[in-house]
Amino acid sequence: MIPALRLLRSDLRLVRRDAMLFFYLIAPLLLISAVWFGVPAVNDVLISYFAFDLSEYYGLITGASLLLVSLILGCMCGFMMLDERDEYLIQYYAVTPLSRRGYLVCRLAAAVVLSVIYDAVLLLCAAPAPISIAQLFYLLPMAALEAPFIALFLVAYAANKVEGLALTKGAGLFVAVPAAAWFIGSPLKYGFAIFPAYWVYELLKLGHGGQPWRALLLMLAGTGVHMLAVYVLLRRFLRRQD
Amino acid sequence: MVEVRNLRYKYPGSKDQVLHGLDFSIPQGEIFGFLGPSGAGKSTAQKILIGILKQYEGKVTVLGREVRETKPDYYEKIGVAFEFPNFYGRFTAMENLSLFRSLYQGTTSKPEELLDRVGLAKYAHTKVDNFSKSMKMRLNLCRALLNQPEILFLDEPTSGLDPVNARLVKEMIIQMKTAGKTVLITTHNMQAAEDICDRIAFIVDGRIVLIDSPRQLKVEHGKRRVRVEYRKNEQIHQEYYELEGLGTNQEFVQLLGRERIETLHTEEATLEDIFIKATGRKLE
After folding, report:
1. CA distance linking residue A198 with residue A202, whole number of Å
2. Does residue B133 sit in the same domain as residue B239?
3. Hey, of A95, A103, A105, A238, which one would you mutate to test binding to chain B, going by the most B CBs within 10 A of its CB?
4. B278 assigned to some structural domain
5. A70 and A119 Cβ atoms separated by less than 8 Å
6. Residue A187: burial class (beta carbons within 10 Å; 0-12, 13-18, 19+)
7. How far apart, in whole angstroms, are the C-alpha atoms of residue A174 and residue A194?
């Protein structure tokens, strides 16, 4: 793993020199700040002027914020990989001791680690509704896998960085569409279960009130769906490389 | 150093065989050239040798190891330069080389020394985005040499180089051979192949149609005669004489004494002539 760590060190230099990548790196911090300070303030205003209590939707807001953080980091990782594919750098890494597998692990692991850090900060500090430790551990694996899922979606379906930029809109739908399940009852809402993000919303909708087994099942199912999605996209990406 | 027996390959999902049973071997310290038109299969053969394509049939051993079974440590021993130089444009030449150098665990060369050898020392801290094609190609060679490889795979190493830098690169490749390294070059550049290769293989439609030293091929496929050009009454004249008994050919000897000779050449074939004769196709 030493070569992989060295690649990560150069990634930091690359991100510093690329304005778009740098923005992607700090954007989650802006989002976390907005959720932390903005949501309670907006809620106060809505209650005062419209008698509308936003706190009923804090779970939805937390889920969307969590997934947006992963989406941003997934896009950052995806764009780096698209750049490296456009420049035939992935082809070159494949003939170094890092190998193509090592390269992929390095890129996807970076997305996972960054997601875990940012998502943990979001859940522990900025989430508008309090999050229990159990919820934190249930949500993090899914939220962390969302970033490599998005990154792989971009590199598996985009032929180059320009197409990748267009596909980010599609990637946004992966986060936005399953949010609709929040407002839909059973059994219709299960139609959204093929979206990995659906399970994050479901777990937050459940809250932390006394259904530990159901929460555990949701986490296992959600993590499974995420892993399956990552696997399918990974295979597609690897086929493209040949 | 390299042993290839009955190598066959077709790309996944394709019905067409790209390589149809290649056989060749490359001993240590040899510069071996793969020549052929685009799509002939030479790049595929090279990709198999460097371990990118592993679903091949036949036997391919490099440094005594079957390539399909190699692990990433294989890349500690080989150096690769692809035809299209691939670098991080936002990094300087030195940063790029340092990054790739850091991926190796064995002994490596100092990037500044390599840059100096290819005339890029003063551009060490210039971003690669600002490099010309020629500079990128030389940087590409530096990177392939970083890990002091036992065997070097070069794809079109002189492409995009001016004559001075092409010569520099060819000299570096010959120095590698002198140091006991093995070099495999893939190219359509007949002149480069002729200048530096100990042996060449013509590959067409996935088959090796000729394999020998450039000199041997040129002699075997040439005409055994000399062409004499001389100037007389402001006109250029040509005469041909068989090589057999040339020293005692009175007509030839008298011509040399009588006329103002401008050129005198044996008529060995060019590699391009041989290629066209052997395949009925031209190199593109």
Report:
1. 6
2. no
3. A95
4. no
5. yes
6. exposed
7. 10
User: How do strand B31-35 and strand B57-62 relate by DSSP bridges?
Assistant: unpaired
* pLDDT beyond 60 at B149: yes
**B276 occurs within a structural domain:** no
Q: Do B227 and B265 form a contact (C-beta atoms < 8 A)?
A: yes
Mean pLDDT, rounded, for A153-174: 89
Q: Which of chain A's residues have a Cβ under 8 Å away from the Cβ of B103? A: 3, 6-7, 93, 96-98
Instruction: Name, in order, each residue with C-beta under 8 angstroms of A53's C-beta and a sequence gap of 6 or more.
Output: A43, A46, A47
Residues B116-125 pLDDT 10s: 999 999 999 9
Categorize the per-residue pLDDT at A2 as very low, low, confident or very high, splitting at 50, 70 and 90.
low
Q: Hey, what are B268's tokens? A: 């060995």
Q: Look at residue B277 and tell me if it is in a domain.
A: no
Structural domain for B184, as ranges: 2-218
Task: Find the chain A residues whose C-beta atoms sit closer than 8 A to any C-beta of B.
Answer: 2-3, 6-7, 10, 13-14, 17-18, 87-89, 91-99, 102, 239, 242
Read off the tokens for A20. 């778009």
- In whole angstroms, what is the distance from residue B136 CA to residue A19 CA? 24
Q: Phi and psi of B232, rounded to 5°?
A: -145, 130
User: For the segment A120-151, what is each residue's pLDDT rounded down to a tens digit?
Assistant: 999 999 888 888 888 899 999 999 999 999 99
pLDDT, average across residues A210-236 = 89
pLDDT over 80 (residue A5)? no
**Same domain flag for B121 and B262:** no
Give the integer Cα–Cα distance in Å for B77 and B65. Answer: 12
